[in-house]
Design brief:
Layout lengths: L12 E7 L3 H24 L3 H22 L5 H25 L4 H23 L10 H28 L3 H22 L4 H24 L11 H18 L4 E5 L1
Antiparallel strand pairs: 1-2
Helix pairs in contact: 1-2, 1-3, 1-7, 1-8, 2-3, 3-5, 4-5, 5-6, 5-7, 6-7
Length: 258
């Protein structure tokens, strides 16, 4: 019982199956999304399998990871972040397939995916009453959570490519743009009363295009504004950094009062 509770009121902490949101969470998220970009490109481009085949491979891994995550009884950091990487790799190749192979274009793809993200969040809110990550402790909420993440990861790839390529801002300029927007969300979090779940999802979505342009900056040719690093090397370094982040920044499950 908390001191602020009325006499006779009992409260209990209910653990979520997703991590408590801290600075370590955001660092790991950005690294994971950058890894998703380089890893997705490594399979679709460097291995020359194409966007469709690569999407099929990553879609299988995505469904396996999400199924394991939903079946788990509690929060497991390694399983959670493996699932995040699975969503961001399939999001990378799926967005590239839709934008480039199907000819939808970055603007069209970004617009469609933004509508899907908003629709997922609105439906989740109407059905469950909240889109807060603290409430992701049952199967239905968790399914909404991963569907929303899947759409947001795919949106991030299309949005990052749009700003870097079509808008002509470039990888560095796009990275600065999305970093500034994330800082703005943090400022709103600290000094306004705007809905915390809304700000969380805004930051979550923005970290994906940031990771996308950072990944492209690492592996794109020099004449395209990149560093021309091997996608395999870049992916390996990012994976190692992510593993170290999970090991040293111990993450615990988000909780809510019930």
């Amino acid at each position: 019982m908390r001191e602020t509770d009325p006499p006779g009121t009992m409260t209990q902490e209910v653990a979520s199956k997703v991590p408590h949101v801290t600075l370590a969470f955001w660092i790991t998220k950005i690294v994971a999304t950058t890894l998703g970009e380089t890893g997705g490109d490594a399979v679709s481009m460097s291995m020359k399998l194409g966007y469709l085949v690569a999407t099929g491979i990553f879609a299988v891994l995505f469904f396996i990871a999400v199924s394991a995550q939903i079946a788990a009884k509690r929060f497991h950091p390694w399983l959670y972040w493996a699932t995040i990487v699975a969503t961001t790799t399939v999001g990378t190749t799926l967005a590239d397939f839709a934008d480039r192979s199907l000819g939808i274009g970055y603007a069209g793809g970004s617009s469609i995916l933004l509508v899907l993200v908003i629709a997922s969040l609105v439906t989740w809110r109407l059905v469950m009453g909240s889109v807060s990550v603290d409430t992701v402790s049952e199967h239905k909420a968790e399914m909404f959570y991963w569907v929303t993440i899947m759409f947001s990861q795919t949106l991030g790839t299309a949005l990052g490519d749009w700003t870097a390529d079509s808008a002509g801002i470039g990888y560095k300029g796009s990275a600065i743009l999305f970093s500034a927007l994330i800082v703005l969300v943090y400022v709103l979090y600290r000094w306004t009363k705007i809905s915390r779940p809304a700000l969380f999802w805004a930051a979550f979505i923005l970290t994906r295009p940031l990771g996308a342009v950072l990944g492209d900056f690492l592996d794109k040719p020099l004449d395209h504004g990149g560093l021309n690093l091997s996608r395999y090397v870049a992916s390996g370094v990012l994976l190692a950094f992510m593993v170290l982040s999970i090991v040293f920044f111990r993450q615990k499950a988000a909780t809510r009062r019930h």
